[in-house]
Amino acid sequence: MTSNKAITMILVVVLALGVVAYFGMNNPPGDDVTGTVAPAERYRTDVTEEIQLGDESIQEVLQSDLFAKLVNDEAFQEAMRSEAFSMALRENALHEAFANERFRAAWSDMAVREAFASADLRLAANHEAFGALAANEAYRGAMSEALVREALTSKEWARAMANENLRTTFDNKAFRQEFFSQRVADALRSSQFEQAMASGMSLHEAFAANLDAFGAIMSFEQFNLALTDNRLREAFASNRLREAFAHERFGAVMNLDAYRNALAMEALRNSMSSMAMREMWSHGAMREALANERFRLSLSNKAVLDMLTNERYRMAFGSDAVLEALANERFRMSLRSNRLHEALRNEALRENLGAR
Asked: Which candidate among 26, 226, 239, 356 keeps its CA 20 to 30 Å from the CA of 191?
């Protein structure tokens, strides 16, 4: 062997030993964040050199089981072909959303993911009044009750509350106290009232037929004006709604300024009576997530909503691999790095990891 060849071989060996030593020092055994396996087992040196590995934290992510799972996740890889998806992954608001454990638990449910396809939910999430309502403990507690939730998100109730006279009447504390009294609740659930509604009586006639129970609420002029609206008759004809009226948590919601303020806006009223809202509020983890102000702010971010309402992206975010990765703070931080995005899109790396 010539002296030049010998020198070249020595340099190659020294360089190889240096690479092994570097990765060994930066990936100690038992690191619960990286979930590492031996680098030589993970991918070839020539592939990693293409990606231009940078700082230590990115290297650790690239060595992790989480990275390997994402590289092999078809839905995520399909979404990564979109530059918009790649850019949105860098959004702090998206990281805030998925940093919330309760939201990740809710998001793992297909029904919740599908609810985010709704334009109604997008509208509500961007509305300040909805944020105030979602933060209210009494409202979340009421929405945990199936009977109350179904009534408050029903089309009949939304149509009834479109009546300005009725909304104005409910703004009156004295009226609310009378309307949600046990006397009125019992009368609304009585066979007498049910028969009156079934007979085709007008709503005003049905109430007037039992003045002992309804006389106090009929003394309010605007309520009498509201009774002439057929939309209100639909609400009172609903057994579900009449049962809900008797529930203490329904009355508690109607006592909330935040709720009445929200219902004063047509667009928000319509969105709150949508199927998407029913799906969202029926999930306990989602209700708990909405109690968190930082989460609500992240959900009102346009980039985040664009991601979560896009069918292809929802599929990507619905996989166990992606949810596991987004649960990891270090991985979320690394999503801001161009190097990680280049690695996630690297075809040779993907093939190599898939073959091991």
From this structure: 226
